[in-house]
Each structure stands twice: as C-alpha cells, then as structure tokens.
Amino acid sequence: MSYQEKKTIASLVSVVLVLAAYCIFAFAQTGMVRASLKDWAVIMLIFIGIGIVAAIVIQIIFHIVIAASIAIKDKDCDDEKINQALKTDAVEDEMVKLIELKSSRVGYVATGIGFVAGLVSLVLNAVPAVMLNIIFISCSVGSIIEGGLGLYYYHKGVANG
Amino acid sequence: MAKKIQITNNIRKLRFFADEMTQQALAEKAGVSRQTIIAVEAGKYSPSLELAFRIADAFQVPIGDVFDYEVKGDKK
Fold this sequence. Notes:
The complex is a heterodimer of chains A (161) and B (76). Chain A is 82% helix and 0% strand. Chain A has 161 residues and is mostly helical. In chain A, helix 2 (37-73) packs across helix 3. Chain A starts with a helix and ends in a 5-residue tail after the last helix. The model of chain A has no long low-confidence stretch (mean pLDDT 86). Chain B contains 5 helices and 2 strands, in the order βαααααβ. The relative contact order of chain B is 0.25. The mean pLDDT of chain B is 87. With 76 residues, chain B is an alpha+beta fold. Classes of the chains: A mainly alpha (161), B alpha+beta (76).
C-alpha cells in the first residue's frame, strides 16, 4: 500500500470518527429533538473544531507510525534517511493530483445533493434543524465519498482525460 | 466519433535492459512517486506528455520506444 493510500485512509478514519461521534451525540440524546437552532449551531461548531483537531492529531500519529515502520524495516537508518524516505514517498505528482481532482469533484456533488436535500426538507415543512443536520452530515458524507473514491482510483488506476 | 486507444508501454523491458533499474530509481529520475511508476507500468495510468518524455529521457531512448498505442478493436 502506497503512502498516499495510507494518508487517505487516515483522513477517512478521522472523518468517520467525527461523524459517528456527532451522530451519537446529536441523535442518541432525546432532549436534542426540542433543541433550538442556536443549540444546533453551537454543537456543529464544536464538532467542526473537534474534526479539525482530530484530523491534525491523526495525521501526526500517521506520520509517526510511518517513520517508525521505516525505522523498523531498515535498522541502520538515521533521521536523515527516514526524512528522505518520507519525502520520496510523499511526492504529490500528476497522478495524485488527478485522483484528488476526480474524487473531490464527486465529493462536491454529494455535498451539493445534500444541500439541495436540506432545502427540500424545508419545503416539505420539516423543522430547520433537520435542514441543518442534512447539510452538516452531507458535508461529512461528501468527504467520505471523496476518500473512498480516492482509494478506489489508487487501487484500480485512473484514466487521464 | 474518435476510436478509443489503449496506451501500452515497454517500461518493464527497458528497466531490465537498464541493468534492472528499480522502480524507485526510475521514479526519482522522472520526478514522480514510485506509485505512479507502478501504475504507468501496469497500464493503469496514462502519463501526461511531459512525464512520458521524462520517462523516455531516464532510459535515454525516443518516446516511441517506451510508449505505443493500440486502437481498441484493431490489431496492429
């Protein structure tokens, strides 16, 4: 498995964890049904913050694990060799950019569909909190689709053009 | 409508004749990751013209010696 695939998996794990934590927190509590829009906004802002912190922490752990695995494989290597190995693995070349472009396009479409679904829920007389939740969750689902599709392209290959 | 073409390559053969050049060495010469060289060699990714020239330059052969194409459905 390549460095980029591992990095994508690390990002996916952080998004899935934060989404799961949000769903458990928001929907497992019966009191949230009657929560005001302001309460929902506060919860979402908190979870956006948690998401950013989780993504940073998971990326740091990921780099530590990668560096440790290089050191275990090659017992004679020093810090310079580890840095060099990380640098060559982490090259963002044209294939990586193409995969990111293609997968993020699909991710944006999924997020857009969620946004429209949120607006439709308002038209169908759902409470505004439902719309907020649909939009928030669709952003996370968009990221998950983006990551999953990225992994698919890394594994199966990607057509240029 | 334009016919679809399949790009093929001789990278494995050229690496063999280049004293069994490793994929990592070729990747460093071409300025891409090893993952990209693996994908190009396996025919999973068609490189840009620029990368194709850089790969050919790494072997010091014309680009036509590295890459070829087949029109899908046609036998060359």
